[in-house]
Amino acid sequence: MKMKGFTLIEMMIAVGIVGILVAIAYPSYTDHIIKSARSEAMAALLDVANRQEQFFADNHTYTATYSALGLSSTSTEGGVYTLSIALTSGGDGFTVTATPADYPATKDTDCTTLSTNETGARLSTGGGSTTECWGR
Asked: Most CB within 10 Å of its CB: which of 8, 26, 44, 46?
């Protein structure tokens, strides 16, 4: 009579292999998700900056009003970041900042906020460098 099935040793080897694969794959996956959220923030920041420049060309000043820029929301498309606009005195400059509002952006310790301004400077806060955060 022939028995069918797995031995305990075979099962433990399979569990060990799966554990090793998960230990390697999961950090890579979470890193990818965080970088995707960062890309969403960068796209939104650059969109707001471009709209600010068009508004400045038409009105000779920048605005802190999203509706004046043709935007209906202060968050990114996926709602992962919240955007804020700060004007310099006189309205001759601005800084737009993306702040984490939801997962996965809230887990990004390297780039806690991303910003850009009227000069095109790309800024960030957190443990990572601006080059790491903006990918250049």
From this structure: 44
